Amino acid sequence: MIRLVMVLCLLAAAQLHASTSQELLQFESEQQRRLYAQLTAELRCPQCQNQNIADSNAVVAVDMREKTHELVIQGYSRQQVLDFMIDRYGNFVHYQPPVNSITIWLWLLPVLVLVSLLLFQLRRRALQRNMQGAEQPSEEAAPASQQQAALDQQLDQIIERYRSTKP
Amino acid sequence: MRKVLFYIPLLAFLGLSLFLLSGLFSDPRERDSAIIGKPLPQFALPDLMSPEQIWTPENLKGEAYLLNVWGIWCPTCNAELGYMSQLRNEQGVRIIGLYYVLPEDPMFGEVFDLAKLQADVQSRLQAFGDPYQFNILDRQRRLSLDLGVSGAPEHFIVDADGIVRAHHIGDINPQVWRSKLAPIYQQWAAKP
Q1: A52, CA 20 to 30 Å: which among A30, A43, A68, B92?
Q2: Fold classification of B34-189 (topology level)
Q3: pLDDT tens digit string along A69-107?
Q4: What is the fold, at CATH topology level, of the domain defined by A22-93?
Q5: What does the domain layout of chain B look like in residue ranges?
Q6: Interface pTM (ipTM) of the complex?
Q7: Chain A nearest-CA residue for B40
Q8: Is B165:B78 a contact under the CB 8 Å cutoff?
Q9: Residue of B42, B145, B169 best to disrupt the A interface, most CBs of A under 10 A
């Protein structure tokens, strides 16, 4: 019986420990909670550069999470929080950088390559068709029929000779 | 026309090679600072050694200085103390420390103890050299966040009017100082 009580006590303690060790954040509404989750997922940690701040435990990521929480509670919108962070850490800190004179090439270049390849292919097709159209009647078809006629004639001659030598 | 077309793939290949080659020598951790050209953000923070003294952007004005974000928990910061002391003593560079406190974890019974921190900092500065005019204590790292600090060590050059002129992430060594920071510092320190 005493053992059972002790085990239960231990379990309860472990439970308590687990619940206190988690980061329990208070929000005023479900909307704020969702905004916080969205923001911490799309803000990038400036220290461990390939993690978002929700994933990272670097000091700066912890501070940025705290700040995000504070601003969300204060009623900042998504764009206002993003602007606050970009103001301090630059466009680097957001996983969706704005389109500007440099980043526009990331969007334009694939389209340009695709269009130029298409044009190239169309040109090649047109050239090939022209060549086929020009060649068939003049160079290939005519000699073929002439050769055929010559061969037929030869064959006829051979047959004729064979017939004539027969008794 | 056909000849030009013939060379296009070669040119494209060479261009791509050059682009990728330059990538081999670039630093992927380097990022643009958002604070250069802007005034220091507002703050009112205590001095590390004598907390009754409060520092604000206003009472730091008057002379250009190098603001060094550091902490005794950071080995690179300790390593550069010697060279920065040399800069202070030989070139008269005004260096102000911004002490970056790591968050304490109450789960491990860690609490913030100012007296212990002061003693630790003092013994560290005695051992490695003391480049600082004074240290500003940023316990909540609020000023560091506003400055766009991502870790320690980091350095800012602030001019006499409190405008940030340079932001260097990483340590200061003779090469970095000579090639990157000294020209900017001298330019702004020379201004009356």
Answers
A1: A30
A2: Glutaredoxin (3.40.30)
A3: 999 999 999 999 999 999 999 888 999 888 888 889 999
A4: Helicase, Ruva Protein; domain 3 (1.10.8)
A5: 34-189
A6: 0.83
A7: A88
A8: no
A9: B145
